[in-house]
Design a protein that fits this description.
It is found in: Cell membrane. This is ABC transporter ATP-binding protein/permease. GO terms for molecular function: ATP binding. It is a multi-pass membrane protein. The mean pLDDT is 85. The chain is 63% helix and 11% strand. The radius of gyration is 36 Å and the shape is elongated. A 6-stranded mixed β-sheet has the order 6-7-8-3-9-10, sandwiched between helices. Strands 2-1-4-5 form a 4-stranded antiparallel β-sheet, with helices on one face. A hairpin with a 2-residue loop joins strand 1 and strand 2. The protein is of the alpha/beta class and 565 residues long. The chain folds into 2 domains: 302 residues, Up-down Bundle (ABC transporter transmembrane region fold), CATH 1.20.1560; 237 residues, Rossmann fold. It binds adenosine-5'-triphosphate.
């Protein structure tokens, strides 16, 4: 049996013990009362009963601690494992999952849904077990004292279960609402803090103040509503207990007078009935908890069971180095029903530098993302060094490729750590990569050089600096293939010249694909592909394309005239 099952089994054992101790207390109270009434015929003196009750109370307390610790900790372990697995799955999921799922939604699965599952597997299971044990044993004992009195006394209980279930459901809705308002409040506060300059320059302080007040008020109302509901539960329980006690007092009292039950029986009966009140209220809560937990489990399993199209084939091979060409054979790609790339075929020889340009949305980024398998190929095939990339292990394929995405993502760490991010062996020369990316001059201006912290998402760096850091990160791993997605869009023309000079030296024998709107980025390229609506409409060396007088030549003319070369 696994450790978790042992914890639950141990927890159940201690729950049994704790209930046994609890149930014996009213029984000894009964014996004590009978001892007081008939000292001559009773087996235990009231004093002996009091001592036993003290020991029973201690036993009850100790076993309760063990049962709670074992079961609630088991739930914590379950939560820990699901969280781990969830995160592992998230890192493996296809990019399409992230395009179709909101970040807030993913985060809420990590917080709300995991909490619901923990509550179900901890408190839920413990309370269900406890209620089950207590009901079986207490009702049996009540029945033994007097069957009809038992039926009358527990009659109001189903009403209590229904009311608590209803109230706890509404409380859950309120708590969801409150959490959503809190999330809105936090993101509004974060947005306001990060855009404080913009708010001031447009004199929008009052507007944001009013917006914040609205959300804060709605958060307050949700919480007040929750407090009102919570306040309802106690009177409901008191009502049900009172009704039960009234029945016991009225009917039970008469039974004592008639001599059908003893006074001790009456005391024990009242004790057992009181013990049932809390577990009965719990029953309503457990029902809500299990509905909520089941819904959360199914939301979590959507991620846990989500299919990833980009995975390693069972017999995936390791790509040690890339010596040969990259071939694209009739490659197509669609986002849903929208065709983004159609029938792309071309061969990029080893060491060739290929520029890719075309209008906005023509599929350039998508084409680059297909090569390291960041997106799955819908149709056709990409072959590197004679191997279909779907048969190459993802880790080895990606380790041979340096990819500089359009938007540089930086972690809030130092420049050095950001550059060395992909260098698992920490063998690369960070300073050299920084130099090759044309970033040295900027780094030297910072007091702490490479150790400068870049702030959250690199707020302390300019757009161009972020891009160059991103290039340095890709260069550090000395890749055989370099994929650059508009890497110089935020870099000024003078700096672009220097970076291209440095990059040109780094290119060496590497195969390079560089996407750019600025044609000047293609100065070292042997060939340029022009994409339009997902198809290659022109290709050739820059000189050949200029001579063709097509789209490329038109773009060149425009940029030449506007001075953006
Ligand atoms: N995650 C996505 N989900 C749905 N459609 C997408 C997604 N990403 C891109 N697209 C669409 O695919 C098309 C091609 O996008 P892509 O980013 O490849 O174009 P691009 O040529 O690189 O554009 P740009 O020059 O602006 O960088 C666009 O029409 C875009 O709207």
């Amino acid at each position: 049996m696994c450790a978790l099952a042992w914890r639950y089994a141990g927890g159940a054992f201690f729950l049994l013990a704790t209930n046994a101790f609890a149930l014996l207390i009213p029984w000894f109270l009964k014996l004590a009362v009978e001892g007081l009434q008939h000292p001559e015929s009773s087996r235990f003196s009231p004093g002996a009963c009091a001592v036993v009750i003290v020991f029973l109370a201690i036993g009850h307390c100790v076993t309760r601690i063990f049962s709670r610790t074992l079961i609630l900790n088991a739930a914590r372990f379950i939560e820990f494992r699901i969280r781990e697995e969830l995160f592992q799955r998230l890192l493996l999921l296809d990019l399409s999952f992230f395009s179709s799922t909101r970040t807030g939604d993913v985060l809420s699965r990590f917080s709300n849904d995991l909490t619901n599952v923990r509550m179900l597997t901890g408190f839920g299971i413990m309370s269900a077990l406890n209620t089950f044990i207590l009901y079986i044993s207490a009702v049996t004992l009540l029945w033994r004292i007097h069957p009809w009195l038992t039926v009358c006394a527990v009659a109001p209980f189903p009403v209590m279960v229904l009311v608590v279930k209803k109230v706890s459901q509404r409380m859950y809705q309120r708590s969801l609402g409150a959490q959503e308002e809190l999330a809105r409040l936090s993101s509004l506060a974060e947005e306001s803090v990060s855009s404080v300059r913009l708010i001031r320059s447009y004199c929008r302080e009052e507007h944001f103040q009013a917006l914040f007040e609205d959300v804060a008020r709605s958060y307050l109302e949700q919480n007040l509503g929750m407090a009102r509901l919570r306040g309802l539960i106690i009177p409901v329980m008191a009502l049900a207990t009172g009704a039960g006690t009234l029945v016991v007092l009225f009917l039970g009292g008469r039974l004592v007078i008639q001599g059908a039950i003893t006074l001790g029986d009456f005391v024990a009966f009242s004790g057992y009935l009181a013990m049932l009140v809390w577990p009965t209220a719990m029953l309503g809560w457990i029902l809500t908890l299990s509905q909520r937990g089941a819904a959360s489990l199914s939301r979590l399993s959507e991620i846990l069971a989500a299919d990833s199209k980009v995975t390693d084939a069972p017999d995936a091979l390791d790509l040690k180095e890339v010596r040969d060409s990259i071939e694209l054979n009739q490659v197509s790609f669609s986002y849903g029903d929208t065709v983004v790339l159609a029938d792309i075929s071309c061969t990029i020889k080893a060491g060739e530098r290929v520029g890719i340009t075309g209008p906005v949305g023509s599929g350039k980024t998508t084409l680059l993302r297909l090569i390291p398998r960041l997106l799955p190929i819908n149709d056709g095939m990409i072959v590197i060094d004679g191997h279909d990339i779907n048969r190459i292990s993802l880790a080895s394929l990606r380790s041979r490729i340096g990819y500089v995405p359009q938007e540089a993502f930086l972690f809030s760490r130092s420049i050095r750590e950001n550059v060395a991010y992909g260098d698992h062996q920490q063998a690369g020369d960070v300073a050299e990569a920084v130099r090759q990316a044309g970033f040295t001059e900027d780094v030297e201006k910072f007091h702490e050089g490479l150790e400068t912290m870049v702030g959250e998402k690199g707020v302390a760096l300019s757009g161009g600096q972020k891009q160059r850091l991103s290039i340095a990160r890709a260069l550090l791993s000395e890749p055989d293939i370099l994929l650059l997605d508009d890497p110089l869009s935020a870099v000024d023309a003078a700096r672009e010249e220097d970076i291209l000079e440095e990059l040109g030296r780094f290119y060496g024998n590497r195969t390079v694909l560089i996407v750019s709107h600025r044609l000047s980025a293609f100065r070292d390229c042997h060939r340029v592909l022009v994409l339009k609506e997902g198809r290659i409409i022109e290709q050739g060396s820059p000189v050949e394309l200029l001579a063709q007088e097509g789209v490329f030549a038109g773009m060149h003319r425009e940029q030449f005239e506007s001075g953006d070369r």
